[in-house]
Amino acid sequence: MEVTRQVQGTWDLSTFKFRIEGAGINNMLKEMKEAKLLGNRCHQCGTVYLPANFYCRKCHIAIHEPAEISDHGEVMSYTIGYADVRGNPLDEPRVSLMVKLDGSDTWIMGAGEDMKPEDVHIGMRVKIKWAEQRVGNLQDMESFIPE
């Protein structure tokens, strides 16, 4: 019999370091220096992945075909945060978005900027705000802003 336990408290993720590896993410990061997004497409079903995946999750075959992806997209889900991870109120609400970029079949997550919480909605059109000086890491995509 499986036992589920509830633990009270918080898990401060800011103290953890996450490492993302693989050819797909490395190729994507290299292109991000030029404010471009590169994923890959399954030659059998046409599904486009960002970051690039080494196999198609639908067809279960190896995929290598590169696919350029737009930096414009549509909000698929969102969250408005009014407190930090410790429960302290934020000075301004924090908007977090899940976005399906045009030309991709997968979603990516990022912060929403220059938008009021009451204006955010499913289907809202946004674009990536690129860092002025890009170095080839995930922070090159600073946030999403309204189109």
Describe the biggest sheet? 5 strands, antiparallel
Helical/strand content category: mainly beta
Rg on CA atoms, Å? 18 Å
Determine the strand fraction and express it as a percent band: 35-45%
Q: What is the assigned CATH homologous superfamily?
A: Nucleic acid-binding proteins
What fold name goes in the CATH topology slot?
OB fold (Dihydrolipoamide Acetyltransferase, E2P)
Q: What's the overall average pLDDT, rounded?
A: 88
Number of domains: 1
Strand adjacency order, main sheet: 6-5-4-7-8
**Distance between the amino and carboxyl termini:** 52 Å
| Shape label | globular
**Count of alpha/pi helices:** 1
Q: Name the CATH architecture.
A: Beta Barrel
Low-pLDDT segments, ≥5 res: none
Total beta strand runs: 8
CATH level 1 class label: Mainly Beta
Helix content: under 10%
List the helices and strands and how they pair.
Blueprint: H1 23-32, E1 37-41, E2 48-49, E3 65-69, E4 72-83, E5 89-101, E6 107-112, E7 125-130, E8 141-146
Antiparallel strand pairs: 1-2, 1-3, 4-5, 4-7, 5-6, 7-8
